[in-house]
Amino acid sequence: MIIWVNGAFGAGKSSAARELLDLIPESTLYDPDAVGDCLRQLLPEKQLQDVTEYQELSIWRRLVVDSAAALLNEVGGVLVAPMTLLRQEYRDEIFGGLASRGIEIRHVLLEPGETVLRERIAARRDHPDDPEADETARRWALDRVPEYLAALPWLVLDAHVVCTAGLSPRQTALEVTEAVGRGAGACGIIQTPEPRAETVAAGVLLFDDADRVLLVDPTYKPGWEFPGGVVESGESPARAGHREVAEELGIELTGGLELLVVDWEPPHPPGHGGLRLIFDGGRMPTADIGRLLLPEAELRGWRFVTEDEAADLLPPVRLDRLRWALRARELGRPLNLEAGHPAEWPADGAPR
């Protein structure tokens, strides 16, 4: 198990985590900041200059997961991870990666309130032994308070909140220990093992009466997605599309699926790539839209969007796939893609 102690920069996560080690048997401190420190030594300076903080580095997010899994395998017990995660897509990537390795996660948020938070950050000047007590560190933490406040709406829904105003680190740790002991903060993320080889996946585009396409928001990976998933052994891609729509949306498609796109996704370690098929599932009846039922452990939301609106939600590779699928729907014939771009398309992008 990992107890992920989240909160604003300067909220007292590290102090509470050290107290947790005394309260939870067979617990070990796992500070993802150490992964960032290693990357500062390993990565070229130019690459580090391109980001404002190491959480933006995809290698940091991968290594946080890999290091946690390796450490748990070595020491067992419980890992206590004091780490600020304010971007939901980073939470999805890291927690999803941990869940795919079968690691249970308890997500706890230390919330002192804005006024107390600012007071605590300012008060660090009175503690010369605190490595975060210098003026630069205090200013850095204060500058990120608005980012924390902006993230609060999704944080309070995802984590167990411990209100720490007026609590000492020891009292905070006692509350966290009690909450975790009764199962609070459990992240019931789908625990699909990571692929070990190339896969075939089927996605289904569903439309409303305004011709907007349905997207869903997974809990286990960053960015939005189309309904769909990996084709199981012995299963046809179209059948997989029907099954995934039923599992993810709670509705049964009665009609056939029309193939729009076949996209070969090249391997990009740690991903293995494979074939990605996009089908046209047609327009959804209004009655079906009204009874959409999402599995909470897998999907947190859905919405119908235009192509332009999808650009703000989909990662680049999925956006390319959607755009060409929509073009295929207009043309009335499927397109063959390689790495998100038509193999049969001329360089100027115009259809032949």
What structural class should be given to the helix and strand makeup?
A: alpha/beta
Number of helices: 13
Q: Beta-strand percentage?
A: 15-25%
The CATH homology group name of the largest domain: P-loop containing nucleotide triphosphate hydrolases
* Dominant shape: elongated
Q: If you had to describe this structure to a student in words, what would you say it looks like?
A:
The structure is a single chain. With about 350 residues, this protein is an alpha/beta fold. The protein has two domains: about 1-180, 3-Layer(aba) Sandwich (Rossmann fold), CATH 3.40.50; about 200-340, Nucleoside Triphosphate Pyrophosphohydrolase, CATH 3.90.79.10. About 40% of the residues lie in helices and about 20% in strands. It contains 13 helices and 13 strands. The strands form three sheets. A six-stranded mixed beta sheet has the order 8-6-10-9-12-13, with helices on both faces. The chain has a five-stranded parallel beta sheet with strand order 2-3-1-4-5, sandwiched between helices. A hairpin with a 2-residue loop joins strand 12 (about 335-340) and strand 13 (about 340). Helix 1 crosses helix 9 (about 170-180) and helix 4 (about 60-75) packs parallel to helix 5. The longest helix is centred in the N-terminal third of the chain and has 18 residues, at about 60-75. The protein is elongated. The termini are far apart. The model has no long low-confidence stretch (mean pLDDT about 90).
